[in-house]
């Protein structure tokens, strides 16, 4: 992004520019004089003169400085900050934002914090499934000035060295940083802050701090205790005990936390909006409508009851609503639907026969082997690790489809568990004991197979 690059004013920017110079008591000629440019350039930005090639960034910066507005008040933020989402996170962001609804109160709080402070850390806290990653993804998608890193334990994308590498790449590309290939995070932020233009800010979104693999003492991901001016972090994490705190900053650096659990009414409104969205979605509309009619419910009654059962958990809705639409609960009345995300996991575990007598040891082992693998694996590889036939593996994949993320390319499809909270469920002591599995033995067996080269090129 060079100051000599040319950009166009947006339709909204034309109006804001006109209002700004009039409120400042200036004419086009006087504004041009103060900004050291020509009246024709101002007219091009206002849209009263043709502007096929755009206007240089440096000129827009000067105009914004004179009028005490931001460059992005004149130019669409997506044009001012070319989007540079790392390819590793594109699929995740698309998946998390496809059906995104609500959360305005969260974004309003974030913007208020950034506007009131010259730097700082803003953290969104919430239980598993409350939509923290979706909030991160939506913020990145809607705010091109933000750069990002998403910790994904299941893919091994959760180590400090990877975090630094991805953040460094984004900062070097955006600010054309020199001699920064080996710089640490504090040095990178200092170098970047020197390139931040008037009215701009650098926002770094870091999702799922609770999934970070970091054994050293000090801040997770070596996040700086001191931040340069106009540098902000937007963090998300699950709740932790105070003695588990892994972010300590200088008293001079502003911090704020927003705990989603403290906003039940606003979260409930967002949950209901999401349910209404799926009720009218082409993929689920027919199945949901048929189930609701069979239950002698109105759509409004259905929305209210399911919202209550969800306990404001979007992961619950993401699992339960498609399951209803696909007929999974055809023989269950509304009052027998599971309550909460953990309740849903327990219910599905039972419905899949994992608690029947005798225990289906082969199927249980397949599920736990997939949990131990962590990274996405094909049916063939899962069969090798679990030492079960591929037909049994496919039965398990079909039964647990709503929990799985399916990755398709030129090779065989690969599968991994969609959310860390399901791994947590599988590791609950009562579930482990009832399933009769030995987690250390399964982990050791997987490790032995890796050593033996069974994983191949996957």
From TrEMBL:
<keyword id="KW-0677">Repeat</keyword>
<dbReference type="InterPro" id="IPR027417">
    <property type="entry name" value="P-loop_NTPase"/>
</dbReference>
<protein>
    <submittedName>
        <fullName>XRE family transcriptional regulator</fullName>
    </submittedName>
</protein>
<dbReference type="InterPro" id="IPR001387">
    <property type="entry name" value="Cro/C1-type_HTH"/>
</dbReference>
<dbReference type="InterPro" id="IPR056884">
    <property type="entry name" value="NPHP3-like_N"/>
</dbReference>
<dbReference type="Pfam" id="PF24883">
    <property type="entry name" value="NPHP3_N"/>
</dbReference>
<dbReference type="InterPro" id="IPR051191">
    <property type="entry name" value="DCAF12"/>
</dbReference>
<dbReference type="Pfam" id="PF13443">
    <property type="entry name" value="HTH_26"/>
</dbReference>
<feature type="domain" description="HTH cro/C1-type">
    <location>
        <begin position="16"/>
        <end position="74"/>
    </location>
</feature>
């Amino acid at each position: 992004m060079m100051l000599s690059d040319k950009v166009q004013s947006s339709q909204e920017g034309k109006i804001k520019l006109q209002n700004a110079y009039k409120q400042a008591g200036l004419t086009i000629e006087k504004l041009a004089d103060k900004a050291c440019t020509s009246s024709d350039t101002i007219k091009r930005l206002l849209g009263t003169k043709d502007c096929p090639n755009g206007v240089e960034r440096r000129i827009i910066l000067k105009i914004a400085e004179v009028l005490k507005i931001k460059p992005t008040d004149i130019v669409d933020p997506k044009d001012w900050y070319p989007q540079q989402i790392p390819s590793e996170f594109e699929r995740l962001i698309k998946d998390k934002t496809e059906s995104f609804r609500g959360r305005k109160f969260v974004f309003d709080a974030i913007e208020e914090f950034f506007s009131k402070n010259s730097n700082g850390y803003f953290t969104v806290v919430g239980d598993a499934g409350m939509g923290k990653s979706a909030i991160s993804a939506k913020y990145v998608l809607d705010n091109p000035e933000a750069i990002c890193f998403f910790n994904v334990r299941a893919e091994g994308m959760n180590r400090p060295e990877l975090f630094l590498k991805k953040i460094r790449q984004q900062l070097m590309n955006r600010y054309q940083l020199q001699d920064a290939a080996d710089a640490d995070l504090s040095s990178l932020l200092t170098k970047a802050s020197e390139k931040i233009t008037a009215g701009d800010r650098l926002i770094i979104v870091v999702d799922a701090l609770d999934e970070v693999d970091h054994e050293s003492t000090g801040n997770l991901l070596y996040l700086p205790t001191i931040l340069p001016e106009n540098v902000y972090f937007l963090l998300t994490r699950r709740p932790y005990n105070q003695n588990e705190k892994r972010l300590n900053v200088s008293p001079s650096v502003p911090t704020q936390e927003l705990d989603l659990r403290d906003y039940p009414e606003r979260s409930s409104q967002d949950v209901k909006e999401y349910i209404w969205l799926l009720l009218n979605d082409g993929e689920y509309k027919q199945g949901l409508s048929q189930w609701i009619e069979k239950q002698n419910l109105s759509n409004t009654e259905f929305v209210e009851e399911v919202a209550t059962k969800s306990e404001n958990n979007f992961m619950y809705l993401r699992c339960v609503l498609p399951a209803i639409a696909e007929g999974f609960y055809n023989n269950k009345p509304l009052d027998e639907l599971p309550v909460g995300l953990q309740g849903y996991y327990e219910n599905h575990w039972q419905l899949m026969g994992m608690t029947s007598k005798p225990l289906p040891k082969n199927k249980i082992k397949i599920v736990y082997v997939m949990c131990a693998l962590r990274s996405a694996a094909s049916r063939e590889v899962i069969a090798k690790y679990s030492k079960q036939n591929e037909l049994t593996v496919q039965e398990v994949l079909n039964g647990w489809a709503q929990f799985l993320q399916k990755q398709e390319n030129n090779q065989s499809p690969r599968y991994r568990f969609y959310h860390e909270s399901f791994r947590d469920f599988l590791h609950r002591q009562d579930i482990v004991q009832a399933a009769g599995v030995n987690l250390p033995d399964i982990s050791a067996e997987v490790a032995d197979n890796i050593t033996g080269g069974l994983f191949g090129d996957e």
